[in-house]
Structures are given as C-alpha cells and as structure tokens.
Write a structure and sequence with these properties.
The protein is mainly beta. It is 6% helix and 41% strand. It has three helices and 18 strands.
Length: 358
C-alpha cells in the first residue's frame, strides 16, 4: 500500500493497531508520560492551579485536601507517574464540591476530529491508573469551543494497588446524540481551548447527574452518580501515567517521545528564565538616571503573550527595581532602573516564570 492508503486505512474502525503505532505525534496529550515537572516534584497541595506536573491542572473545592507529586511507582516502560494523595479526608462531599485533574488541549490541534460535521471521528483515550480505592470512576470530556458540550464515561478500578490500563472510545454520537455532528459541535481553528479531558476523583450532586456515555448540553454534568468519593480517607491515593488520546477507535501502544520534544511542547504553555551573574548592567548618565534592557528569547514560542511573574528576587547594586518591559510570544525585555549617579548598576540572580496556559 502507499503511505496515503496506509494512513487512510489506519483511521477506519478496523484500523491495524500495529500500523497506527508507527505514526509519530498521534498522541494529542502533552506530557502523558509525566516526564516534565517545571514547577515542582515534591508533594504540593492541590489548589485549582498547575502546581506540579506540566500540563495537568489540579482542581479542588471541598472540605478535604490532597497533594500531587512525582512518583517513580510506574508500569513497565515509564519513568514517572503523577501521584495524588488525600491528606485531609472529606467523607461527605457537598452538592457544589469536587476534586478532579484535567488537561486542556489547544483547539488547533483537534482539527482532524472534524467535529461540527457529519464526518466527525471517533477518538480513543487510554491511560494507566492505580489506586488503593477500587470502584467506579469517571472521565469527563468537555468540548469548550463554539457550544460547550460534556461527555462523561465511567470506568472501573478493579484491583487495589494494581496498575490497570483503561481504554475508552469517545464517539461523536455517544448516546445516539447529534450535538457534535451539528454546527455547534465545531472546534475553532485557533490557539484557545478545544477540549478538556478530566479524571474525576469526587463530585457533589450539583455535578453528578450525567448519563454514562451520552453527550449533554448541560454544562453541570461532570460525573455520574456512581462516581466514588475518593476524598473519603487519608489512605487514598491515585496514580496516573501513559495518558494518550488519538484518532480512531483503537488504543495503540503508548507513544514514547523524547524528553526534549516533550519539554518543548510544555514550554509553549509555561517556562522559566533564570538570570545568573551581573545581567543586565546599567551606567549612570548626566541626568542621574539610567536604565538598561536585556532581551530574553524564550526557549520556544509561547501559545500567546504570557504573564510574567517574579519567582526569585534579584540581588541589586545601586538600583532597586527590575521589571519586565516589552513582552510577546517570543521574547521579553527586562529593565533595570536607577535614580542615582556614579558607578555600575545591576540586578543579578533573579528568576521569572512565563505563563501562557490554557
């Protein structure tokens, strides 16, 4: 077969998994092997933010608490997993409370799905999961572009403290619905959020009214009523790795990407810059005022103009202000200000983070 014919046949319902597995960049999830941890690797409290592993957001609104951290407890073939651990139990989740982990996927990366047309494609989510708490869990697919629709699908953790691979096919007509194949199902071809994929840990009654495997226009549908309350004991843990989302209804072997490739993809959304030594440096002028600007090029172009935040304060000499100047997707200029005369002025050993997360 020609390569074009190979590709066409590999996206049909009867696709050959071995053939599909040879195609690079088929995984729509970034950092699915949990390789990149730019913010932290140690246990950090979940606080409705990206706070440990790159590209995975920790949601928490309940009377308990949980942390996430890097773990070397993994299935064969992966170096790290994401570990979540309950640190304060909430045995009774109130109606408006929840805990879940999600990844947002950029809309322009989802155009092959052909959502919003009668040709909308099946996709398959696969992942390795482990927990001491068995029972029914759910994932939620939130299509956030054009018109927001939710799809909740149940899966079961069968054996305690055992790695299990889950494979979930996401149909555009799940539940015999036509929401995704109609115009409201379209995903814009831009750098906004197209999909959100969530792994649910606990949801109150305001959010757990979904029908299993059925697309819904009710944006409060995050889980079914069968979802376990993972927050109910400080003994509870939840491990996740080898996350893959791909075109077709077949889960292929996990796509292992190099650390460098994975980091570059993560840095489109978040990266840091650490300045060592005497940089930038300024000299006084006749008006007893001077400034110097140093332009920093980002490791990779960011998704959008980022927010710049100081994370490590500089050491100053004859000046007291370091500030970002011009900022865009590719560069940031840093400016040292001084209002005294004579000598050299500099800021050194400072760090900024740049955030363009979805």
């Amino acid at each position: 077969m020609t390569k074009a014919r190979d590709i066409a046949s590999a996206t049909t319902p009867n696709a050959n998994a071995a053939l599909l597995a040879t195609f690079p960049h088929r995984n729509l999830i970034i950092n699915g092997a949990m390789q990149c941890w730019q913010r932290a690797t140690a246990a950090t409290a979940a606080s409705n933010s990206y706070n440990t592993v790159d590209r995975f957001y920790m949601n928490k609104s309940n009377d308990g608490a949980y942390t996430t951290e890097q773990s070397t407890d993994t299935p064969t073939g992966t170096g790290f997993s994401l570990k979540a651990q309950v640190t304060t139990a909430d045995t009774s989740i109130s109606a408006a409370q929840y805990a879940y982990i999600h990844q947002n996927i950029e809309a322009q990366n989802l155009q092959a799905l052909q959502y919003g047309t009668s040709n909308a494609k099946n996709i398959t989510l696969s992942f390795q999961v482990k927990s001491n708490k068995t029972g029914t869990y759910t994932i939620v697919v939130r299509k956030l572009d054009t018109t927001t629709y939710h799809l909740v699908i149940e899966y079961t953790i069968n054996s305690a403290n055992t790695w299990e691979k889950k494979e979930i096919t996401i149909s555009p007509t799940a539940g015999s619905t036509s929401l995704i194949t109609a115009s409201g199902g379209a995903i814009a071809n831009d750098n906004g959020t197209g999909f959100q994929i969530g792994w649910n840990l606990a949801f109150g009654s305001n959010y757990n009214g979904a029908t299993n495997n059925t697309w819904s226009s009710n944006t409060s549908h995050y889980a079914t009523s069968n979802q376990v309350n993972w927050m109910d004991s400080t003994s509870n843990n939840f491990y996740l790795t080898q996350v893959q989302l791909e075109l077709g209804d077949t889960a292929t072997p996990f796509e292992h990407r190099s650390f460098g490739d994975e980091l570059a993809m993560c840095q489109r959304y978040y990266q840091t810059y650490k300045a060592g030594g005497y940089n930038p440096r300024a000299y006084a002028n006749l008006n007893n005022y001077s400034y110097a600007a140093q332009e920093v090029s980002f490791a990779t172009a960011m998704r959008a103009t980022p927010t710049a935040t100081e994370t490590d304060a500089p050491t100053f000499s004859n000046c007291d202000l370091l500030r970002p100047g011009s900022l865009n997707k590719n560069t940031c200029s840093f400016i040292v200000d001084s209002d005294t005369s004579g000598g050299a002025y500099y800021a050194r050993d400072w760090e900024y983070e740049f955030d363009a997360e979805l």
